[in-house]
């Protein structure tokens, strides 16, 4: 009986490690997407990029890489990343909330890599529309996070997210300086991506927040500034 109990404990520990490994893998792939430059293609099998030339085309043909495979990779990583956010956003652990904020930052930065891929394949109208659809989906889900009361955003994330949803060019919005304080005010913004537009309203946060919540926000902001 004692041996069985030990086996169960070991299995439980191993299972948790596997889950954490999968989470880290998703975060790593998300960061990879943020670094894609215009003119580069993704090799999904090796999680690497290659220049857009004839040698790359031969390599991709041999190893069965394709634009459809690239789109499926991007879509899956983005979907899993948002799932991680919704998994951790209600946690009271500072580490979970910091991880949540970092994933949001990486998702916003991934918009640049996705736009670069879209420009690389601009002659492929079908793939271009796939990328446009994915971008629209990301903006819609970012708008949902912006209007949620379940997650407190740091000044930098709040400022960049607001600029993105207001329709500023992606690179300009992401390079914006952070606001000195969190702005909790009711304001309507427009979310734009190409010809698609989404409307969202940032809800007003009650001024009667508990001191503990305010302390948590300050702690998270300090932790992120040190990363």
Give me the secondary-structure category.
mainly alpha
Regions with little confidence, pLDDT below 50 for 5+ residues: 1-9, 178-214
Q: Tell me the number of structural domains.
A: 1
Percent of residues in beta strands: 5-15%
The termini sit apart by 46 Å
Mean pLDDT, to the nearest integer, reads 77
Task: Please trace the helix and strand order, writing H or E for each element.
Answer: HEEHHHHHHEEH
Count of distinct strands = 4
- Level of helix content? 55-70%
Largest sheet: 2 strands, antiparallel
Q: Walk across the major sheet and give the strand order.
A: 1-2
Which descriptors would you attach to this protein?
single chain; 227 residues; mainly alpha; two-stranded antiparallel ribbon; 8 helices; disordered N terminus
Structural commentary:
- Helix content is 63%, strand content 10%.
- It has 8 helices and 4 strands.
- Mean pLDDT is 77; it is low at 1-9 and 178-214.
- The longest helix is centred in the N-terminal third of the chain and has 33 residues, at 2-34.
- By secondary structure, it is mainly α.
- It is globular.
- Strands 1-2 form a two-stranded antiparallel sheet. A two-stranded antiparallel ribbon has the order 3-4.
- It has one domain (35-225).
């Amino acid at each position: 009986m004692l041996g069985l109990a030990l086996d169960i404990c070991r299995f439980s520990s191993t299972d948790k490690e596997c889950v954490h490994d999968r989470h880290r893998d998703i975060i790593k792939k998300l960061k990879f997407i943020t670094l894609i430059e215009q003119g580069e293609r993704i090799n999904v099998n090796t999680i690497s990029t290659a220049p857009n030339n004839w040698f790359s085309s031969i390599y991709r043909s041999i190893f069965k890489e394709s634009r459809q495979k690239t789109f499926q990779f991007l879509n899956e990583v983005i979907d899993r990343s948002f799932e991680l956010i919704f998994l951790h956003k209600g946690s009271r652990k500072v580490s979970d909330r910091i991880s949540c904020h970092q994933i949001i930052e990486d998702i916003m930065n991934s918009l640049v890599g996705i736009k670069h891929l879209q420009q690389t394949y601009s002659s492929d109208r079908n793939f271009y529309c796939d990328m446009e659809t994915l971008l629209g989906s990301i903006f819609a889900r970012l708008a949902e996070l912006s209007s949620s009361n379940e997650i407190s955003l740091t000044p930098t994330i709040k400022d960049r997210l607001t600029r993105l949803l207001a329709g500023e060019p992606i690179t300009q919005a992401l390079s914006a300086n952070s606001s000195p304080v969190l702005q909790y005010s009711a304001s309507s913004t427009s979310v734009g991506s190409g010809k698609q537009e989404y409307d969202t309203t940032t809800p007003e946060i009650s001024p009667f927040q508990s001191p503990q919540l305010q302390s948590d926000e300050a702690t998270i902001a300090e932790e992120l500034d040190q990363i």
